[in-house]
Every structure is written in structure tokens, then in C-alpha cells.
Amino acid sequence: MGGELHPGGEATTRRALELIGVRPGDRLLDVASGTGTSALLAAREYGCLVAGLEYGEGTVADAQRAADAAGLCDRVGFIVGDAEALPFEGAQFDAVLCECSLCVFEDKPRALAEIRRVLRPGGRLALSDVVVDRSGLPAELDGALARVACIGEALPVDGCMELLSDAGLHPGRVERRDEDAAELAERVHDRLRAARILGLDSAPGSPVAIEDAVELAAAACDAIARGALGYAIFNARR
After folding, report:
1. pLDDT at 143
2. pTM of the entire predicted model
3. CATH superfamily name and code, 9-237
4. Which residue of 19, 65, 90, 151 is most buried, as measured by CB atoms within 10 A?
């Protein structure tokens, strides 16, 4: 995907941070921070003090090296940890960012309860994720393979709002980013078709056979066009 790990890339990250009014000096937690792209953006462009949490040790090491190379090691740090058991004391953060990750958390209520716990009173959450209308999904996007594409455990918009409320958070505005999802899905589909032409047996970095991956991407493009699949930014306040 050319380094773009979620629909809209950095533009969507900026919009998420704007929706929760991130300010210079804010203590921001990036849950499931991956290689650190969003954490570095927040520190560089918004003046935040950022803690990035990611499950994989190798990914955390790569993210910290990127922070050091960018000269941001005094404002950004990364730690290995589990979103469902955050290794922080309560009320430590002014804001939390969580991108394209809730859909893969095994215990979503627990993860959101942990996010609420580490937010100070009045703290803000920006959550962006895949959203679905399961009644409109084709069978190939509602089975085991769909988990590879972050669709298998994705929720409808109302389901995300309910989870936020049940966790003791107060949901605010929901901003749909379906056009960004469509653009990313089309790019993925094109690259997978190119990989098939080149004779690759599986999608790069994926255990899925190339034919299955192409079909999955095509079905995702169609589902987005029909409104059964999309992407959204949620914000909430403790």
C-alpha cells in the first residue's frame, strides 16, 4: 500500500487530531501505533508529547529508530504493550488516538475501558476505523478471510457509538471517510492484480493466495460503492 496503512493516510490522521482539538504540550497516547507515523506527525505538527503503544517488539524498535532519526526522541517514545491492559496509571493523558485497530482487538469493550481509564477527566479520544453494514456484505467479506482485510470483526457505526458509551465515554461527531476507503481499496486491488500478472503465489506480506486476495479486494471495492463498507472517524470525551 505504499506505506499508507489506513484510508486517507496522514490527511485522515490530521483530521482526527483536529476533531479532538489537540494542542501543543498535550500528552497524547497513540494506541496500536505501528511504525510510528501518526505519533511522529502529532509531535512534529501539533507539538504533542506522544507515547506510542504497540504489541510487537520489532515494530516498537523500528518506530523508536524513526523518532530518533527525525530528532523527536525528546517528544516521542514507544513502548511494547497490550491495548487491553495499558501499562499506564490512570488519568495520565489529555488525548488518545487509535487508528484502524479497534476492529482487530479481541476484547473491544476492555480496550475502550482501558482508554477511558488513562484519559484525564475531560480528555478526548479520536478513533478511526472500518465500519460495516453486515446485512449488505457479500459472503466473502463476512468469513474467515475477511479478518485479513480488517473487516471480519468490524462494527457498524451504531455499534461503535454504543461501545464508546458503554465504556463511559461521551461520543461526539462521527465523520465518514468512505471516499478515502474507496481510493485505498482501488489501489490495493490494482496492485494485487499486477502481482497476479507477475505470477506471485500470494499477496506480498500476506498468507492469502493471490487469487483470493484479488477477489477480496474487488468485493471490498463493490461493498464500499454500495455503502455496506466504509471508514469513519469517531471522537469522544471522558
Report:
1. 65
2. 0.90
3. Vaccinia Virus protein VP39 (3.40.50.150)
4. 151
